[in-house]
Prior knowledge:
DNA binding, DNA-binding, elongated, SpoVT-AbrB_dom, 434 Repressor (Amino-terminal Domain), SpoVT-AbrB_sf, mainly alpha
Amino acid sequence: MFKDNLVQxxxxxxxxxxxxxxxxxxxxxxxxxxxxxxxIPDLDKCKQLADIFGVSLDDLANYEPEDNMGFAVPPKGKHxxxxxxxxxxxxxxxxxxxxxxxxxxxxxxxxxxxxxGQGIALVKSESFxxxxxxxxxxx
Length: 139
């Protein structure tokens, strides 16, 4: 997990092991050992790595592409919750991880937004209405 994510993020960022080592104040050999799985950096260095690559510390350490349709580690604040199937009446089940993260409970109302060519999004109604109210006040 960690070692594979580190290699993938470094290459995606078009950085060499030397570049990463310089930013962290460590040797290139240390970075090479982390990428080979021979050792792991301390927590402070892990936090710095997550910041360098713009990902969460949790994703840097634990992200599994196989569990996420093969996609690479997402940027901090972005999430891929997997596939859902649309039922006969158009219903979907929002994955538990998404419901927990966004505090969605039974009975909550969601606004369905859409942009042609882009897709749809769900927003809690109170958040959407609060934003709409702020925009109206600016007019």
